[in-house]
Amino acid sequence: MMASSYNAKDEDGAVTVSLRSKKPENTAFKQQRLPAWQPILTAGTVLPAFFIIGLLFIPIGIGLFVTSNNIKELEIDYTGADVSSPCFNCSQNFSWNSTRPCTCTIPFYLEQPYESNVYVYYGLSNFYQNHRRYVKSRDDSQLNGNMKSLKEPSKECEPYAYHDNKPIAPCGAIANSMFNDTLELFYNDPNGTKIQIPLNTTGIAWWTDKHVKFGNPGVDNPNLTAVFQGTTKPVNWRRPVYELDSDQDNNGFINEDFIVWMRTAALPTFRKLYRIIGKKSGLVPTLPRGNYTLEVVYNYPVRSFEGRKRMILSTVSWMGGKNPFLGIAYVTVGSVCFFLGVVLLVIHHKCGNRNNGGDISN
Amino acid sequence: MTIPKDIPEKWFPLVLSLKRKKQKGLNGTKSKKRWTEEERRVRANDREYNEKFQYASNCIMTSKYNIVTFLPVNLFEQFQEVANTYFLFLLILQLIPQISSLSWFTTIVPLALVLTITAVKDATDDYFRHKSDNQVNNRQSQVLIRGSLQNEKWMNVRVGDIVKLENKQFVAADLLLLSSSEPHGLCYIETAELDGETNMKVRQSVSVTSELGNQNNLASFDGEVVCEPPNNKLDRFCGTLYWRDKKYTLTNQNMLLRGCVLRNTEACYGLVIFAGPDTKLMQNSGRTKFKRTSIDRLMNTLVLWIFGFLVCMGVILAVGNAVWEREVGSLFQSYLPWDPPVDNFLFSAFLSFWSYVIILNTVVPISLYVSVEVIRLGHSYFINWDQDMFCSQCNTAAEARTTTLNEELGQVEYIFSDKTGTLTQNIMSFNKCSINGQTYGEGTDPLAPQPKRLDFTPFNPLADLDFCFYDDTLLESVKVGDAHTHKFFRLLSLCHTVMSEEKSEGELVYKAQSPDEGALVTAARNFGFVFRSRTPGTITTTEMGRPVTYTLLAILDFNNIRKRMSVIVRNPEGRIRLYCKGADTVLLERLHPCNQELMNVTSDHLNEYAADGLRTLALAYRDLSEDEWEAWSESHRYADKAVSCREERLAAAYEQIEQDMMLLGATAIEDKLQEGVPETIAVLSLANIKIWVLTGDKQETAVNIGYSCKMLTDDMTEVFIICGHTVQSVRQDLRRARERMIELSRARDGGKEEGMEGCFMGNGFREGQEGDGTGGREGGKQLQCPPPSSNLMDNISGEFALVINGHSLAHALEADMETEFVSTACACKAVICCRVTPLQKAQVVELIKKHKKAVTLAIGDGANDVSMIKSAHIGVGISGQEGIQAVLASDYSFSQFRFLQRLLLVHGRWSYLRMCSFLCYFFYKNFAFTMVHFWFGFFCGFSAQTVYDQYFITLYNIVYTSLPVLAMGIFDQDVPDQRSLEYPKLYEPGQLNLLFNKREFFICIAQGIYTSVVLFFVPCAVLSDATQSTGVPLADYQTFAVTTATALVIVVSVQIALDTGFWTVINHVFVWGSLGLFFSIMLALHSQTLFMIFPNQFHFVGSAQNTLLQPVVWLTIALATAICIVPVLAFRFLKVDLKPQLSDTVRYTQLVRQKKRKPVDRSEGGACRGLGSVSEGRLGARGGSRRSGYAFAHQEGFGELITSGKNMRLSSLALANFASRHSSGWIDTLRRKKPTHAHTTPSASGESSPAPSCVSGSVPPLSNSSSVLGGSQDTPIEEETGAAPAQNTQTVPALSTQTPPASEDAAPQGSAQAVDAGVLTPAAVRSRGGDSPGGWTITLGAVQEALFGWKARATASNSPRPPSVPMESSQIE
């Protein structure tokens, strides 16, 4: 009968199943016996760690501090908020539509000569480049030279995507608010002549930004005016994007001033590299001691939101510009560690648990 | 993961219809049927008629989905989880451009991942359900269709069909038994799958149908059954059969239920009454309760708090946004105008609130729940894989049947244990006997040199080889032919209801109703009085090699009132004799007066036996003359035929003849404890776990077992016995017990103050209350020294025990007495509740759950423990002899009580520890991650700008930081398993909930917030002025984001490295791998290639390369890391150094080798006890009134079955029963709606598992290491529990056989590991048994010493280390 044969099979199956041992495998993994390193916090490991951190951090800190102190830096606020400020008038009379640029001149004195390359920065305060709506208001595709995005800027750029039914190039709030003051430096020779200091406009942006992230549309077409045909300049701009520079390699979207501005800052007070004063050959300092004049073409209004504008001159070292905080922080942390190490050592010796010896009392 | 809930009907008509269908298949009780069935009418062989009613078919469907419905239904179910819905809500928020502060994928990727994982799991589960459904539905059965038998699949069987069943077949549906191949229409079924009871049950058909016989008659059978609608009551059925104008009442006795197996019946026919989902099996399936752990609840509370916190943050930032937009933003509009719908700062603030809810949501990441599940699953697998919880005898590994309770195993405070089958093996062994005033079997003194086990084979070829007896004088006495001894064993071979099966000549198998009887008959068999077979009228034995057949005249059956049974037999010579065995209390009263002297002697013996915890029976006989027999036989027949009061009349008739008996002697049966029970209980109570025994047994038995398993010890100051029958007396008892406790502990305290000379006079046992004198008189006084190191509190809680019986418990559980009972009982170290019903067991558990904020664990093996197992926080089922009911209801199951210590102290402890460190770290890392946004809010105009790259936010929780913490959560160990068994106190932090509570949580989030502050402000301060060496400023947003993210990942990695205490390869791979992944993924995402493809998606092109090349950035990261970690390090070091936890100390001792090691001193360290025999000690301490562990446990009415001949087949049936105790997987699957996980992989290696050599840290003082080598058992052992001697003897053999392989394992392992650690080498040994070279005889407790001794010598001689064999090679064998 079929049913019985079916049953027999069933029973057989059961027998074979029961014969198989269900014993779990004896592997280190399954038995939780994997070889393991079991570090524990003992005086023998923790205290030396503290001392080592201390001994490492303090010299680094001192080194950093000294390096930072050797860096020369000069900061000039030219916002013109004060009545006494030479730029007061410019800042007061500002209007976006004025065609006549307002210029102000600020004299300053360098007490020390600036050796090697000198970097010129502009600094803005209370300027929220890190605001969410500001940060996203750009179209990287357009900036990368995508023709389609050039004509149809991303929605992210709103409300700076279209103007007069024409797509804005470059679109977005970031581009629209690009810093457009012109800073010029003059050296007042002791004999009275005013020598303009040559400022390098290139080499101020990241390589990747300049060569990867930004690109002009129509790579093969050197005529940017034609390429940007059909687009309009950002509302606040005085010139269209293809007239930013006469140099073909620094014009359009790959204009370094533009690229630098488009790299938004993390904090509302920031500085951005403006120009580089290249080191002259020989032993002559880049900027000798003496009187200088800063000439500002005042285009960029910041008074409305209580912003400040600065011009900064700085040299750099291997670790960048002047940064006393890092050195001090290192020295402090190192000392604290060392001190903690001593304190812990004392505590451990005075009242540390002597029973660690092996008495395990419940 | 998701349990289907009720769905609002109006919303989802589609889903509803699906669901309805599903539910119908799944569980009939829940589904609202098309109409409510009030009664069921079934007409046999009439499908047309039955189809009118649309009864459910026999097709079962436990699966939830099919291919089409899977996606919608599963998604729908998943979104009923609050967490998932929450994330869906976030996702929708993110789609609103004005709010969206994160890209949509930051939420959808983790959400999709979680949903996918769950869906895959559900799908796999469902696939297996489909498979088993198909298998079951396609089983063949023979259905009588139009007069002929046809094979049909199960699913095609209809209500009203007549089905033929054959032996060993599963019953396909609930059937009405119509006829059977056996006489009287009987058939036998095994119901183990249904109710867990393994004994056969007899079912009988209604007499009219049983006469139908062959299938032709059956085919024309057209009776109609009217019965109750489907329900889940297994033991009840009522219906009526209408046939040929007559009514026949149907009861459960006529029913064969689906899930049963037909046994020992060639074939039978049944009428299908309930099919498929209507069957009682299916109606009973389904888990009743969903248990949650306390950590779960805490976690949910905390998550709610965090939501509250999140809202607070959102509000603060929204207010900030309002202020900012008003003060600054409105002025800044020339550069950054408001988005079109926003026209004022308030609306902007409102939007900003939601934006911040989105970006701060990562404080409760979606991965939390998934990770917790994964970790628990891992822990469950470790439980399933544990070889030390594998029982080789029964070939069962431990099984974690739920995966949600693991960490609660580390917090258990109360254990409620069943006795029979849990503490005891339910195996009785004939241990001692008293024959004619002579006691035998004293050779079992466990401390004497191992006595020789008697070899019965030369004397008796029929002997049972498994039988153990040590006293050869008894055998001599039998051989010599002592008449009393012969009578004694003859009685044992005749007076019983055992069935025998003789498969081949001499190969006897007894099937006894109670194990006691089996033991007695087996004893008689070995001593030459072999019970061979029986018929309804005869008993055939082989007496001293000579076959004898007795005529069985009557069986005077056992019942609970009579407490005895007798048989009346006529021997071949024609003499009639009554043999009686029964409880001494009843039997001694019915002796002939001339037995007085013998009775006294035997009574003494009985007292002795009882005091040893043995179950006793007295045996007697009476010679009957033919006339007496005739006369009594007449009256018996008369009583038997009586219509009214039959029982009473029969009892009176029995009483009449069971008089003037001659005493033969007494037997003592040992109720064998399960292996390792006393040790386990000792270890568990050291771990501060209170053990309550809840048993249906008698008080005496229960107390005896309490003593033999060391729950009660002679050291106890007092054992209170509550056995009042009235509310007042119980209340009085309880109150008195409490007063007494306070008084005694105060006295003790005083004594201590007077000086430590103090031996303390405890008053021993307390007088029981009111009348119930049998148990109340626990006399005896104890003289004992209080352990010198114990303090008052320990005394109060540690030295008392409470015994309460069912009657009193009923009163004690009443509402007004609850608190009184709880306070008294919880002050006691041990509580024994005897004579309790299954319901009371559950009540006691509920009581403790209600009054104590403690985790309870119930352990049991039988159907009567199910309620208790279900109501406790954790239910553990012993997969033993009593079927699978308890296991099915349990959360964990294994086969030996002793595995409990490993489950709790090792797995539970680890699980708890791991879960706690996991949660701490998890909350920490998410706060550290998320709160950075909060601080950044103050600098970005509260605009909900994120600090990090959106891809980092997406991947942080699921890729960069998930694996190391998972590895810690799954693999971390603070101390090795050996140590946690050795130092049970390590368990306490779990009970006190010290490792993760609200305080710890606040510390964690405080640390997280601190870290976030550092992570934000340090880069902020450094980078704001810093420039690259090329002069380019570093303060741009992308550099800042990369720096902070890198610092964050490094800090949390260092933190996990600090938190991880057990660095396995996996941890290394995960931690380093995660760091590596972070950098490679970041570099990839910031690469030019990706940017070229999607310029709008990858804004960060070049950032990573630019940033990470800057030394300043790295200096910043190092600084932030140091500032974050140094305080933690200092704090932790101080904690370990000044206030080390026990686990710290244990870890430390592992690391630092100790040359000098003092003996382990526990709280109860110096109990003044040598190696004296426990039993002797106990004898001295306790009076002998505790006797008569009444040995009958079997059912009434068995004698009748025998004499009627009805169950004569049971004997062969018994064999079949044993041989085929396979459980069929499909029923398991049916009953477990959610199969938790796969079974462990069976391995081919059949070697026996090393017994957990946990047992106690009883360590002899190591004066010189050579004492270890001696391995003598005489080493004085300091012992903290009352467990010493028995423990010693029991474990020594185990250890001595098992240590060498273990040590081979351990030695290379230890050294390999030590080398690995690179620290003081042998100290770091994690021994699994001791690393002494094989071959030594090692005593208990010396194992550990050997370890240290060896190490000591190793250093002293500066001997080279053992070669550091890679441990895998030595372990994977």
In percent, how helical is the residue content of chain A?
25-40%
Radius of gyration of chain B: 37 Å
- Tally the helices of chain A: what do you get? 11
CA radius of gyration of chain A is 33 Å
Low-confidence stretches of chain A: 1-18, 355-362
For the record, give the distance between the C-alpha atoms at the N and C termini of chain A, rounded to a whole number: 69 Å
Task: State the order of secondary-structure elements of chain A, H for helix, E for strand.
Answer: HHEHEEHHHEEHEEHHHEEEH
Number of strands of chain B: 35
Assign an overall shape of chain A.
extended
Mean pLDDT of chain B: 74
Secondary-structure-derived class of chain A: alpha+beta
Helical/strand content category of chain B: alpha+beta
The amount of beta strand of chain A, in percent, is: 15-25%
- Biggest interface pair, residues each? A-B, 125 and 149 residues
Taken as a percent bin, the fraction of beta residues of chain B is 5-15%
Low confidence ranges of chain B: 1-34, 752-795, 1153-1195, 1209-1373
Give, in spatial order, the strands making up the sheet with the most strands of chain A. 1-10-3-8
Pfam families (chain A): CDC50
Membrane topology (chain A): Multi-pass membrane protein
Protein name (chain A): Cell cycle control protein
Keywords (chain A): Cell membrane, Cytoplasmic vesicle, Disulfide bond, Glycoprotein, Golgi apparatus, Lipid transport, Membrane, Transmembrane, Transmembrane helix, Transport
